[in-house]
Amino acid sequence: MLRLSAALIISGALGTVGAGALAQSDATAGRDTSLREAASPKQNRAQTSSAYGSKPAIDLATPVQTFHEAVKRAYWTNPTLLAQRAQLRALDYRLPQARAGYGPKLDISGSYGYERDNFELSAGGYIAAADWTATATAVITQPLFTFGRIAADERGANANIAFGRNALRATEMKVLLNAIVAYASFIRDNDGVSIARDNLALLDREAADTATRLRAGEATSTDHQQVETRVSLGRAQLYAAQEQFESSRSEFLRAIGSLPGDLAAPEPLSLPVTSLEEAYAFAQRNDPILAAAYAREKVSRAALQAARAEQMPRVDLRGRAESGTIEPYSSSLRQTSLRGEVIVSAPIFDSGLRRARISEAREANDSDWRLIDAALRDSRVETAAAWNSMIAQRAAVVQLVASVDSAQRAYDGALQQERAGLRTTLDVLDLARELLTARTALNNARTESYLAEARLLAATGALDGRELLPGETLYDPGTHYARARDDGDIPLLTPMIRALDGVGSRSELTDRPVRDSAGLTTTPGLVVDETAVAAKVPGSDATPGD
Hints:
Blueprint: H1 4-17, H2 19-31, H3 67-77, H4 79-92, H5 94-99, E1 105-122, E2 125-145, H6 149-215, H7 221-256, H8 276-286, H9 288-309, E3 314-325, E4 334-345, H10 353-419, H11 425-460, H12 465-468, H13 477-485, H14 493-501, H15 530-533
């Protein structure tokens, strides 16, 4: 789940894009099908042509067999991820919109109309004048120097795109994490059904053995009733395990896009850090939610710069061409005019409107700056939680492996002792329950240990397609950005006006420093007995399905 500050960062930054951009994003998502993996009605096969990445042919009707295939299908077919990619492509067009301000603007207008007027020359005497006339006007305007207005708009557009890319990364990580959780959980719940069946079969054998001993006078009816009670309970536990298994199947379909087949064990995950301190540092550099917070702050800082620039004058070059009639009632005689002028305009008095806008933008930027601190705090908490869970679950797996072995040997020994009259039926049933508990706990701990590693990768920003799909061609947002970036630029003119308008202002917005000392404070993390953690790596006892 996206943490609270992430929701604030993403929703707030989308708000700064503006309703027009969101409408454009929705329209783009509806029109641009180059990235959509819509299934064919006949073959249910994902589309394979794309301008932004070489998508593989995916037959969604074929059940998933391997971890790699599951991740690949989620990566290329998840609707939420596809929508986020379309939204980023929409944001790419904010840059050419901003850069269009450096170029000229040409407007033309024309009219053709009929005019009739009656003039009273004397009392009761009128003379009429009427005719068709045509006029045409063309106005071209070229900004020369806006004191950073257009440059601020361009910086804001770039910050919006940077935000969109990090929002895409966050969405991608969430989708991939959900796919990993669905894959591992399905294996866990499938094993849970097997464990419940084994437990019921064990209890059925105990029931049959007790019935035989009851007929031979070696057991009492109470012993028989105790066993029957446990058999009924074991059957109910099997039903619950089957219900959970079917729920996992549905979740698998939602997260991955296809039904599961006979799944292989998930592939080991490679962790980029070996300590919690390294994880903190890695997350601070790579967490997309934190990066989105920095980008959002730059968006509002650019808006503040634009608001301040509105207080300054601006210089524009304007040319005007007109063609019309000399007389209003005749098109036979015409006149044309050409005019060129340099216009210097400046605000003088607006009753405090611009000052209020600057104050609003300043406070909005301060709010976004504070959200960087909030995002860093949340990043530290999420990283520490994932790390501590991983350490605890790895150690738990070691103990539970020994617990299952001991419980199995205890049950086998008690079964022999019961037949020799040294153990009661209740003793055997209790040991059977302990065996079930230990096996179930081990099954869950193996899965949770694996998922804790996946959550640690997500918390630190290391869970992405490059790590999970090595060798695969992935979606490249830079391809579309490169196509849209210079769309509409006029050679020589745009770079020249851009350089002039950027005089006196920074071309790039740098990251703000962290102001919250708590966000930089770290916790030591969980420490367990080294003998319980030694040599525990992903893919051994920690991997579900072993």
